[in-house]
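Sample entry (249 residues):
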Amino acid sequence: MKQLLHTITTALLAIMLTATSALAGQVNLSAAASMKDALNEITAAYEATHPDTTFRKNYAASGALAGQIEQGAPADLFISANVKWMEYLKKQRLVELSSVRTFAFNELVFAGTTAKKVTGMNDLPKLGKIGIGSPKSVPAGEYAMQAIVKSGLQQKLAGKLIMAKDVRESLMYAELGEVDGSFVYRTDALLAQQAKILFVVPGKLYPQISYPMALTVTGAKKTNAKSFYAWLKGNEAQTILKKYGFSVK
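Predicted structure, serialized as tokens:
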């Protein structure tokens, strides 16, 4: 009996040590949905040369991610699609202030499958349905709404806007033809199979689209998270970002 208990105890300890070791090398990455494809390749490239590190990735609207982090969800590194939600977490003291920096830049476009001639903002009122990320939590939607307001189209487009939970869902609406077109990032539109870029939204209509990144207060204490954060600033990561249509400085 004692021998059996000893064997069971030893086995349990081995399992616990293995699990602890795995968690120690795990980096919890919370990033804007528009970064999904680029970051999947970036993390794969990192894992290829850092086999001791694994990733738990969470892609969603930046506002939703910020809310999750505020509620205590596991996150070591946060990459937002706008400055607003990073500033929010800074005020909550949930990110390491010294680690906040710009990761990449993007631009807003209007993409769809409609046969109607759409070459600029002033052509939008003749469309039926228009996809847009919810401005309350989706940066792409917030940028798009600012462009709509500055173009004086808010009233003309009332009732035409179909809200999406994130920019990828907005693109899906356009891909499936559920809307005539959607406001999405250029990087998302380049991945589309059916929808095509109908026009680039003039940059003067919305703030510069930048993606700030930062270690959370938890991630700043983890060696693996800090190493990956440092690697993200290097040439290999930036080359992959450019491949997916992002710009870096």
